[in-house]
Amino acid sequence: MKLTIHRGTNQIGGCITEIESGGYKIFIDFGEQLPGTENKALQPIGGLTCDDVSKSALFITHYHGDHIGKICDTVADLPIYAGKTALEIFNCLERRLSHIPDPNEAEKHKRIVERIKSINTFEQLNQIKVGEIVVTPLLIDHSAFDAYMFIVEADNQRILHTGDFRGHGFRSKGLIPTLKSYAKNIDYIISEGSNILRPNATMQSEQELQKDFEMQFRKNKYNFILVSSTNIDRIFALYHASKKAKRCFVCDSYQTDILKIVSENHKQYTTFYDINYEQTTSSVGRFFDLKRQGKNPFSFNGNLKPFLDKNGFCMLIRSSDAFKSLLDEYAKSNDSKIYYSMWNGYLDSNKPAFNESLYNFLEPYKIEYKHTSGHADLETLKIVFETVKPKCGIIPIHTEAPEKFQDLFHEQTSIIPLRDGDVYDCNIKRINHD
Ligand SMILES: [Zn+2]
Ligand SMILES: [Zn+2]
């Protein structure tokens, strides 16, 4: 078995992993580099972007753009596999993006929508065989819904690829039991390390954050939250927080469509995803799907305005002019609050991922930062490595500081410092620098 990290040994985002055995190849993730990262030209990759693909397949850990965004650069008949609910959410997002005004961007998203039609789906523990390689998806918690780790098995070797994951989300309590049950006899872990240089990124769990929001919603009548439309568990937590605080929950139809996908597929497992979308009584804690009239900005029309003014609300917004007039109207009130519930790096002009239009959108307002990371903290990484105890070592990816793995985790196992494009031969345990 041979293993190559084509990209992502020293950056967060754009990771591509290849595992080859007996002439068959599987690839894990094929996404965009993060905005602002130095653009590394990618050489053609046989079995993924060129040559014969009859003996290969691409597996997607989750729908974040840095893991799935480049699927249109694959050879057209390469089989791609992704989580079932994840793919439905991604399809909904991409359909919306295919209508944005920039024609080049819209075209790109239209191509993605086309490619999605041929993607195969799996659910947790569905084993998929590519020649002699067997891939088993393990459901884990991340800021993307329906995200997976993969166990890849061939040639008497077993690799655990972590994808992006964390230990402080709503569904994280399953992490260690899942690993204990399924990630046995692992030889190598290919692990993400996004938070290696961000020790404070996970000060709160998602549960604590939800309580915090509930307290805020009780105190403040008019609440606006800027949150990623696909950070599903955060949004359901906001819904429950607003309901408990007896505020109404308001979001637009696109966001409602995304939430409905999750409810339909998952409400039978937990009431957390069970929202009464059609409730018509004028009770507090109601869900409102705010319809937009053509290209007009969002507004509270007719009876809705006095109802929301009286009972208060929690409204999800995005940095679009469509939300601006509502924000301007309510921001003047002492009863209003605007929360920013995404990574603060997008608002930091010193960071390469600085998003100027987002910054300018929020600039006129006083905002409160309320967020917790989608990635594992150091303690969680350590517990995972101690639980899995890989026999041969850990290969760091999805991190700006792979060298820190050596300082932090050398007691758990040996660290194998690969560079982009190195081929690691698992049988003879040697790196081949091409
Ligand atoms: Zn990622
Ligand atoms: Zn991610």
How would you describe this protein?
The chain contains 12 helices and 20 strands. With 434 residues, it is of the alpha/beta class. It has an 8-stranded mixed β-sheet. A 6-stranded mixed β-sheet has the order 7-8-9-10-11-18. Helix 5 runs parallel beside helix 6. The longest helix has 14 residues. It is globular, with a radius of gyration of 22 Å. The two termini are 17 Å apart. One zinc ion (ZN) binds next to loops.
Distance between the termini: 17 Å
Structural category is alpha/beta
* Overall strand count: 20
**What would you call the quaternary organization?**
single chain
Strand order of the largest sheet: 6-5-4-3-2-1-19-20
The description of the largest β-sheet is: 8 strands, mixed
Q: What's the structural domain tally?
A: 2
The residue-averaged pLDDT reads 95
**CATH architecture assignment name of the largest domain:** 4-Layer Sandwich
Q: Bin the strand percentage.
A: 15-25%
Apparent shape: globular
Which superfamily, in CATH terms, is the homologous superfamily of the largest domain? Ribonuclease Z/Hydroxyacylglutathione hydrolase-like
